[in-house]
Design a protein that fits this description.
Blueprint: E1 2-10, E2 16-25, E3 30-34, H1 41-48, E4 56-61, E5 64-65, H2 74-80, E6 81-84, H3 96-105, H4 111-125, H5 140-152, E7 158-162, H6 170-185, E8 189-194, H7 197-203, E9 206-211, E10 214-219
Parallel strand pairs: 3-8, 3-9, 6-7, 7-8
Antiparallel strand pairs: 1-2, 1-4, 4-5, 9-10
Length: 226
């Protein structure tokens, strides 16, 4: 599903965010990518959605070589790789339903299909009863559920969650992790980028550790070791 081959990301000041990264993630896996802030985790996410271009190496997603992806193809890629961020990125003047629907509207999806897809997504993320609420009326955990729902509308093959629990208390954080596990059980490959040691240790899933842009550990059933 995801294949990195000797990927490097070097900036103009000669600093590296990725050094000789090679890894293979198969379809349906749940993988935690761990490391302290500034170690290259978010850069890896940005390279997977072509927000950052790598300096050398190869990235393949679903047998599609995105190393030199054309600008016009990036929207197609981002429908296959859904991303959820720590700060939700919701539209404050739109309801829960409208926030999720907007991700379809900007792609030109017909209203009839939107009316069919959004309720299905609301059910998956457990927000059917909050469909008419605005972001300011929601808890942090509920806002993150909206963000996850928005990322799911195109039925992506991969869901990348970049520090999705960073702004949440322990209870809400665990609910978000449970939701990601549910989505993974439905067949979506999930990449959880985090520095939350407790969550990673409870998951007992594959753990890839990054330090200073280098993959320093890859455990099939791992713990947070950095």
């Amino acid at each position: 599903m995801i294949h990195l081959k000797k990927v490097n990301k070097r900036y103009s000041d000669n600093t590296y965010a990725a050094r000789n990264m090679s890894l293979h993630i198969t379809s349906g896996e749940f993988v935690s990518i761990v490391g302290q802030s500034g170690t290259g985790k978010t850069t890896l996410v940005k390279m997977l959605i072509a927000e950052e271009r790598l300096s050398s190496g190869i990235i393949e997603i679903g047998n599609w070589d995105i190393t030199n992806i054309k600008h016009s193809e990036i929207p197609v890629l981002r429908r296959q790789v859904g991303v959820v961020f720590q700060d939700y990125k919701l539209l404050p003047k739109k309801t829960v339903y409208e926030n999720i629907a907007f991700a379809l509207e900007v792609c030109g999806v017909k209203q009839g299909n939107i009316d069919m897809i959004v309720p299905q997504v609301l059910k998956v993320v457990g927000l059917e009863e909050k469909h008419d609420k605005f972001p300011q009326q929601l808890s942090g955990g509920q806002k993150q559920r909206v963000a996850i729902g928005r990322a799911l509308v195109h039925r992506p093959k991969v869901l990348v969650a970049d520090e999705p629990t960073g702004n949440l208390d322990t209870i809400n954080a665990q609910e978000i992790i449970d939701l990601l596990l549910k989505i993974n059980a439905l067949g979506t490959t999930v990449l959880l980028v985090t520095h939350n040691k407790d969550i990673v240790n409870r998951l007992r899933k594959r753990v890839i550790a990054v330090d200073d842009g280098v993959i320093v550990s890859d455990q099939k059933t791992g713990k947070y070791i950095i």
